[in-house]
Write a structure and sequence with these properties.
single chain, 173 residues, mainly alpha, 2 domains, 4 helices, 32% helix
């Protein structure tokens, strides 16, 4: 069995950490306003406020210290549990440049596990396709995503394929 899928409890702080690691700017502590929506570049000689994590343990600790809450996603047989950083999990952080595109593919096992959960394989009840609550912002209902209609198995698989593809090309490439 593969390592359980990891997710975050605080998408806003997670996004701010990721942007800080990617740019060297301090998105975590920046007070976002309409007049000042983006933090400044660090001055010459100033340290990067949030160095890129160099290990899984470092990632978990940085997230914990910034109220992100990394957890293993609950399944039908296991409850949601928070990452400690002591788990035997390999870790690689990659960052492309404007000249290099990195196409990060999901693990084969993770795709199969998602499909099985959505379809209710192994006698389990099929999961609904849920979107994170922050999607509600785009629909004028902050914190509450628009209700999704019940999707049939083929619709779930088509939607899943589009989400995986969109994530891969927009986020990782």
């Amino acid at each position: 069995m593969s390592t359980p899928r990891i997710n975050v409890d605080n998408h806003l702080m997670w996004g701010r950490l990721v942007k800080s690691w990617a740019t060297g700017r301090d998105y975590v502590n920046h007070n976002v306003t309409d007049a000042n929506p983006v933090p400044p570049e660090p001055g010459p000689g100033q340290p990067v406020p949030f160095p890129k994590p160099s290990s899984f343990k470092d990632l978990v600790l940085t997230c914990k210290n910034n109220h992100v809450g990394l957890h293993f996603v609950a399944t039908a047989s296991t409850p949601k549990t928070f990452c400690t950083g002591d788990e035997p999990i390999g870790y690689v952080l990659l960052q492309g440049t404007s000249d290099i595109s990195i196409l990060r593919l999901p693990a084969k096992e993770k795709v199969h596990e998602s499909e099985a959960a959505l379809l209710g394989a192994g006698g389990q009840a099929p999961l609904d396709y849920a979107l994170p609550s922050f999607y509600g912002i785009a629909f004028g209902t902050p914190g509450i995503p628009q209700p999704m209609r019940q999707l049939g198995p083929s619709e779930k698989m088509e939607f899943h394929a589009q989400r995986v593809g969109e994530y891969t090309i927009n986020t990782c490439a």
